[in-house]
């Protein structure tokens, strides 16, 4: 069954497509490039507003030229098989596509072993989680994957709007089950002090964070740790907020190459 999405999803995926094209262009001098899609999604996606088809992230990656030569797609059982069938139908004979059904946090290790012979290749990971499904240890594995040269790049969706509700931030006490999920994603409990202080009204987020909403303060609390993995760029677009990881330590020129389609798109840095 097709999944219905709002306009912002189409917008997000267009920006992803532009970025992936820029990534492919910037890496055209080498023969291999890797795309990891940790949350590959549905085989069919439809716009809620127009009933038109929306191409999902995997299709967007498959359109880049020069092509991604290795694509590793992760999705839960059932949906993984459906997206695999749809991709093979849409791109018959296309090589280098591997689907890993199940939890991406477990399967990522398998995929990275399968890729070890090309661990030198430029690598991009799209981490389009619904809420806080990814684990910090998974981000570390991807960050440590490349043997030489710039590190892998990751685009991670932080669904910051969900955190206050999930945490029950306005209730009597924080929801510890949801809190455990956040801790697994952020790899630390440092966020708890921020959340508790905000909940009790002890911490005034200040004008900047108030403008962005208190849920963003939680995400920004993660920034120093993300920075230790790599350098972080915070991009904002309507309801979607990304912490963009430049996991390469590359030159400013290369950064500009990668950033230009976003700058000219709908993101405001
Ligand atoms: C926001 S959707 C991804 C949309 C996709 N990137 C696209 O462009 O169409 C999130 C997806 O993650 C999948 N998912 C949730 N938890 C997962 C996990 N632990 N491992 C792999 N996939 C997971 C869900 O089934 C869902 O299809």
Question: What is the domain total for the residues?
Answer: 1
Q: Could you spell the SSE succession in H and E letters?
A: EHEEHEHEHEHEHHHHHHEEH
Instruction: Please indicate the percent range of residues in DSSP E strands (runs of 2 or more).
Output: 15-25%
Low-confidence stretches: 231-269
- How confident is the prediction overall: mean pLDDT? 80
The rounded Rg comes to: 19 Å
What does this structure look like?
The chain is an alpha/beta fold and 269 residues long. It has helices at residues 7-26, 57-62, 79-90, 104-114, 136-143, 163-167, 176-186, 190-199, 206-212, 214-221, 223-229, 252-263; strands spanning 3-5, 34-37, 45-47, 70-75, 97-101, 123-127, 153-157, 231-237, 240-246. It has a single domain, classed as Rossmann fold. Helix 1 packs antiparallel against helix 12 (252-263), helix 4 runs parallel beside helix 5 (136-143) and helix 9 (206-212) packs across helix 10 (214-221). The radius of gyration is 19 Å and the shape is globular. The relative contact order is 0.13. S-adenosylmethionine binds at residues 13, 39-42, 45, 56-57, 74-76, 79, 103-105, 128, 130, 133. Residues 240-269 are annotated as: Disordered.
What would the keywords be for this entry?
binds S-adenosylmethionine; seven-stranded mixed beta sheet; Tcm_partner; Three-Cys-motif partner protein TcmP; alpha/beta; two-stranded parallel sheet; 269 residues; Rossmann fold; disordered C terminus
């Amino acid at each position: 069954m097709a999944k219905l999405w709002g306009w912002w999803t189409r917008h997000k995926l267009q920006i992803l497509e532009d970025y992936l094209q820029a990534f492919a262009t910037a890496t055209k001098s080498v023969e291999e490039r890797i795309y990891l899609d940790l949350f590959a999604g549905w085989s069919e996606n439809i716009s809620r507003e127009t009933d038109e088809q929306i191409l999902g992230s995997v299709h967007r990656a498959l359109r880049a030229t020069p092509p991604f030569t290795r694509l590793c797609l992760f999705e839960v059982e059932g949906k993984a098989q459906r997206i695999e069938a749809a991709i093979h139908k849409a791109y018959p004979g296309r090589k280098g596509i591997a689907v890993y059904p199940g939890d991406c946090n477990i399967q990522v290790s398998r995929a990275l072993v399968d890729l070890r012979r090309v661990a030198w290749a430029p690598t991009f990971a799209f981490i389009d989680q619904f809420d806080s499904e990814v684990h910090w240890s998974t981000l570390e594995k991807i960050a440590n994957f490349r043997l030489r040269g710039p590190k892998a790049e990751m685009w991670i969706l932080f669904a910051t709007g969900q955190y206050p509700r999930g945490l029950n931030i306005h209730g009597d006490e924080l929801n510890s089950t949801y809190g455990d999920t956040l801790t697994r994603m952020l790899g630390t409990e440092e966020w708890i002090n921020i959340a508790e202080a905000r909940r009790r009204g002890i911490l005034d987020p200040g004008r900047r964070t108030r403008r962005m909403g208190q849920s963003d303060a939680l995400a920004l609390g993660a920034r120093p740790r993300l920075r230790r993995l790599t350098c972080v760029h915070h991009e904002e677009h309507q309801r979607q907020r990304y912490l963009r990881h430049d996991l390469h330590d590359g030159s400013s020129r290369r950064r500009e190459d990668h950033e230009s389609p976003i700058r000219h798109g709908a993101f405001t840095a």
